[in-house]
Structures are given as C-alpha cells and as structure tokens.
Amino acid sequence: MFRPRGLVDFRAPGADEGPGDVPPVLSYPAGTVVVVSGLPGSGKSTLLRRWSEAALVIDPRVVHVACEAVMPAWLPYAVYRPWARWRYFRWLRAAVDGGRPVLVHDCGGRPWMRRWLAGRAGRQGRELHLVLLDVGVAEALSGQETRGRRASRRAFARHRRGLDRLLSALPARGPRGGTQPVPDLVREAASVVLLDRGSRERVAAVRFDAASPEGAA
Fold first, then answer.
1. Closest listed residue to residue 21, CA positions, set 176, 154, 212, 178
2. For residue 181, what are the domain limits?
C-alpha cells in the first residue's frame, strides 16, 4: 500500500523495469477527491470500475446516457448537451460537498475543473489528488476501438492538447516510484500519480484511510 504525496511517476523508463515497483493499492486520506485523467480510450473507465468499491465514481458518460435515454432518437446530442452538462455539474457538486471520497472521471483538458474541485474540497479541509494515465495516442485510439465508441476527431484533438500541456509541465522521468514536487500547473493537487499502460494494470485498488502511513508501500 502506498500513499502518494507530490509527483510520483510509475511509468516504466525502460524494458528492464519490473512489476514489483508498482504498488497494488494507492491509499488516500479519508474524504479525498481523486481525479483520474487521460485521453479518451486510455482506460479511465476500466480503472474506475476496478476502484469503485472504495468510493463513489462520477463519470460524465453516465449522465450522457441518462439524458440520451429520455430524448427523441432524432435529436442530436449537441442540442441538449448544455442540459446534460448542467446535470453532471449538479451531481459532481453534490458528491464533493457530501464529504465522502469521490473518484472523478476527467480527460484532463480542463484545468479550471481541477481548481474548482480543489476549492470545494479544500473548504471542507479535504484534498484533491490526480491520477494521470499516459498511454500514448495509439493505445488510446485502440482502446476506443475496443470499447466500440470513438470520440470525434475534434474532441480527441482538444483532449490531446490539454493532456500534452499537462505532461509537458512535468519533469523528465526519473526512477520509477520516486517523489518530486508537484509542478505549478497542477499545484491544486496534493499528489500526481503517473501511470502508463503496464502500471495502470497493476494498481488493483484504492483505499481512503486517515490512518494510512504516508509513503508506505
């Protein structure tokens, strides 16, 4: 079990890196808001399903599907997107204000969203933490094909630009699992955990436990 603080990079710098460096469980303080970011198709939904026993998962896709179900089939989503987004933000705000730990699905291209979440959580004495999936464009596109649902080129390009800005602000890769200060671009986060395709599969669960030892593996 490992409690992240600062920037923690679990991406593999080389082919000789073994699986033992990646903790099976990430431990956060009670009531933490954890934002899971990455390109569409990078595995966010799969990861959040695996972690969902520990906390409420807030996924905008749930709201999208719910709104779609009550709208005429001929009506384009773009027409009622503002309503869907309003419902999503109401759900997100209620979840964060409820004081429970929350796992938030986010593509990472909206820094204002993280700052807003951090502000609402911070007023309650709670922290925001970030888990960032860096799997590459090819893997993300493959993931979209596998799930049978593709983001539009425009949306994917927008998310890619946002993620690229975020990744470019991070230091070069050091020893896997090493801790560094959180960059200014994500200063609202108490920790940033970087996962690639391999390490993403090895983190089996998250825990929210005020008594967990900091940095313990």
1. 176
2. 6-13+20-208
**Which pair of structure tokens corresponds to residue 92?**
């997100």
Question: Cβ(157)–Cβ(109) under 8 Å?
Answer: no
Residue 171 gets which letter from DSSP? P
CA distances from 164 to 59, 109, 161 (A): 22, 9, 5
Query: At residue 153, what are phi and psi to the nearest 5 degrees?
Result: -60, -40
Residue 103 sits in a domain of what CATH number?
Answer: 3.40.50.300
Is 1 within a domain? no
DSSP 21: G
Asked if residue 35 lies in contact with residue 106, where contact means CB atoms within 8 angstroms, the answer is: yes
Determine, yes or no, domain membership for 216. no
Residues facing residue 195 across a β-bridge? 133
109, part of any domain: yes
Question: What is the C-alpha to C-alpha distance for residues 193 and 6, in angstroms, rounded to an integer?
Answer: 8
Q: Dump pLDDT digits (tens) for 128-161.
A: 999 999 998 888 888 777 777 777 788 788 888 8
Structure token pair of residue 171: 């230091």
pLDDT digits (tens, 9 = 90+) for 46-65: 999 999 999 999 999 899 99
* DSSP-derived 3-state class of residue 179: strand
Q: pTM, whole model, 2 decimals?
A: 0.88
| Nearest residue to 87 (alpha-carbon basis) of 108, 61, 113 | 61
In the chain, how many domains are there? 1
